[in-house]
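Quick one, tokens below:
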């Protein structure tokens, strides 16, 4: 038996969410640990955000640490314990695992270097009693949302307090600084200072998000706030956060802060797919699970899908996907014979604290989580088969076959240079550009032209940052996700507005995009889409762009006959219908004026889909009112949908007999 010190630090913001409960997390954990170690247990410190106890046990440091985490997970099953707490176990010889824990972080290389430097310098600080050299040090994090900043701040707080460089008392707090006094989410500098003046706030790490102050015109207001922080540096650790930006923009903010404070800058690169996968594996292991090799094919496909619309939230999204994996795994297990497959979950945490037997991880198979990625569940149909099923795509399919043949020939002949495979899709909305771009990725993957064939869809606006210096790394990150896949940019001409628009971030995004297109011309397909005239303006305004996008495919607007065929194709896929429906559909689309069909106002396939969805919703309501089971589409349902304003106002009256008065 030997004495072990257990120190658990909780995130201050998370603790505040528990203030309505009878006992705060530190008190709850203290009670649980006193039960687990009744013979030798003493409390060294118990505060709002920290518990420090001493116990007598034979268990090893890492084992105790895992078991304390499991205890907290049992008490707070709805919270991510590794995000809101930091556990440090110190043995009899004074050894601690906190630096090892920091080294195990996914990414964050610059932060790890900083921590190792602090650990190396600490003995000299203590020897020479120059604690101010650390206490007056502040930190600038350049990191995007979803990269785990809150977790890192908690670890850093525990790290420096564990080294006795800082007398921590109240944990970590994060505030978004705003210049708007009426802001509902942010905190003004004056309000932030009032929080720092509170006695129970001392001994904390405060991280201020200063993204709203990145414009030079707002530097004076921020500098005034920094001057006020100088008097408080012995009582607090101060950190600042901005988005991940290019080096020049980071340097500007860093130098502005350094005019007043002793600063350290910590840029954090966005996570790669391998890093996201590593985080998911660690998270599964926390719950004593592991995924089979083919599970990660499904995981990668799902993450690509999550990123494809530009709405990706880093580790938060990965956590969500892992929780879905765990749910599907438990769902699969629930169908098995409980007598032979159920694990005994009645074992208490207290028993686990003294049992050091290696726990065998439960395996998750691909079949159990296949629902995560719908593409894995679909019947295996080749890309060209999908393209051939689309109405009016015969010429486009032939053109793509030519492109595939040309690229494959260049791949098989070492004397030939592989052509750039970036493309321009020209046409009105709803003509199938997005769908075909998605299929192109699949076709290229099937033919060995692309590694993955995933599809990432963005608009021009998505590539542009909110702050100076944010656009280039944002665009580069989007391209990095699309390596081995298709990057589809709709209304791409929004990146270029001509010389009369002055200096805008769109040009910066375009410059970065062109560089990525050239550097990864063999491993990424960029497809820009939009109206023909606007796309031509984009090419003329950027001479280097046209040569990098040699393949041009035009998508003509659909004819009335094709529009009717698309409508009936949708109907045939999902519903039964009256025999008289098809002639009525043909009559309706023939009645649409040619001028309307050729105008930018007409949405082609989207118009058809909207009418189709309105038709079957009418049928569904009719069947429900008549208490009938199966939905069968009728001419009356179709006519009722056509009579609604968005489908009737453009009709030529001489051709609309039976549809309007």
């Amino acid at each position: 038996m030997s004495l072990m010190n257990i120190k658990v630090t909780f995130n201050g913001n998370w603790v505040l969410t528990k203030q309505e409960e009878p006992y705060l997390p530190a008190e709850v954990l203290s009670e649980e640990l006193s039960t687990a170690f009744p013979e030798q247990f003493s409390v060294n410190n118990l505060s709002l955000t920290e518990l420090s106890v001493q116990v007598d046990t034979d268990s090893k440091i890492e084992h105790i640490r895992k078991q304390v985490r499991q205890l907290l997970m049992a008490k707070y099953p709805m919270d991510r314990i590794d995000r809101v707490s930091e556990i440090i176990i110190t043995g009899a010889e004074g050894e601690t695992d906190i630096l090892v824990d920091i080294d195990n972080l996914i990414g964050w290389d610059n932060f790890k270097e900083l921590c190792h430097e602090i650990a190396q310098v600490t003995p000299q600080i203590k020897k020479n009693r120059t604690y101010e050299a650390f206490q007056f040090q502040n930190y600038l994090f350049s990191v995007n949302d979803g990269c785990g900043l809150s977790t890192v701040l908690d670890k850093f707080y525990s790290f420096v307090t564990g080294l006795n460089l800082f007398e921590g008392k109240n944990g970590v707090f994060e505030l978004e600084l705003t210049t708007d006094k009426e802001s509902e989410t942010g905190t003004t500098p004056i309000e932030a200072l009032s929080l720092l003046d509170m006695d129970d706030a001392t001994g904390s790490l405060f991280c201020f998000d200063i993204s709203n102050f990145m414009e030079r015109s707002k530097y004076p207001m921020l500098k005034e706030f920094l001057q006020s922080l100088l008097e408080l540096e012995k009582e607090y650790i101060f950190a600042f956060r901005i988005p991940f930006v290019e080096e020049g923009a980071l340097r500007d903010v860093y130098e502005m802060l350094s005019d007043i404070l002793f600063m350290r800058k910590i840029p954090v690169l966005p996570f790669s797919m391998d890093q996201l996968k590593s985080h998911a594996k660690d998270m599964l292991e926390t719950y004593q699970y592991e995924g089979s090799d083919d599970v990660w094919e499904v995981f990668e496909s799902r993450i690509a899908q999550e990123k494809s619309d530009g709405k990706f939230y880093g580790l938060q999204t990965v956590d969500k996907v892992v929780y879905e994996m765990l749910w599907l795994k438990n769902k699969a297990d629930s169908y098995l014979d409980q007598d032979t497959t159920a694990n005994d979950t009645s074992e208490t945490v207290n028993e686990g604290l003294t049992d050091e037997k290696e726990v065998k991880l439960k395996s998750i198979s691909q079949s159990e989580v296949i629902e995560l990625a719908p593409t894995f569940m679909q019947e295996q149909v080749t890309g060209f088969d999908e393209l051939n099923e689309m109405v009016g795509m015969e010429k486009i399919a032939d053109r793509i076959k030519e492109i595939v043949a040309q690229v494959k020939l260049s791949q098989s002949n070492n004397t030939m240079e592989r052509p750039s495979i970036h493309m321009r899709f020209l046409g009105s909305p709803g003509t199938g550009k997005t769908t075909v771009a998605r299929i192109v990725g699949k076709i290229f993957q099937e033919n060995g032209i692309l590694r993955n064939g995933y599809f990432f869809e963005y608009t021009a606006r998505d590539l542009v940052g909110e702050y100076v210096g944010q656009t280039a790394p944002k665009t580069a990150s989007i391209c990095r996700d699309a390596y081995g896949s298709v990057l589809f940019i709709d209304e791409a001409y929004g990146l270029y507005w001509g010389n009369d628009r002055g200096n805008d971030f769109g040009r910066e995004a375009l410059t970065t995009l062109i560089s990525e297109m050239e550097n990864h011309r063999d491993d990424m397909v960029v497809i820009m889409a939009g109206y023909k005239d606007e796309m031509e303006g984009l090419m003329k305004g950027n001479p280097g762009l046209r040569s990098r996008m040699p393949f041009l495919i035009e998508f003509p607007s659909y004819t009335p006959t094709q529009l009717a065929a698309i409508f009936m194709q949708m109907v045939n896929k999902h519903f039964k219908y009256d025999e008289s429906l098809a002639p009525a559909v043909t009559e309706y689309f023939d009645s649409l004026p040619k001028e309307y069909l050729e105008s930018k106002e007409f949405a082609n396939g989207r118009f058809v889909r909207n009418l189709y969805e309105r038709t079957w919703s009418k049928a569904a309501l009719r069947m429900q009112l008549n208490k009938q089971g199966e939905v069968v589409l009728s001419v009356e349902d179709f006519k009722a949908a056509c009579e609604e304003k968005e489908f009737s106002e453009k009709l030529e009256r001489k051709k609309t007999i039976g549809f309007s008065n």
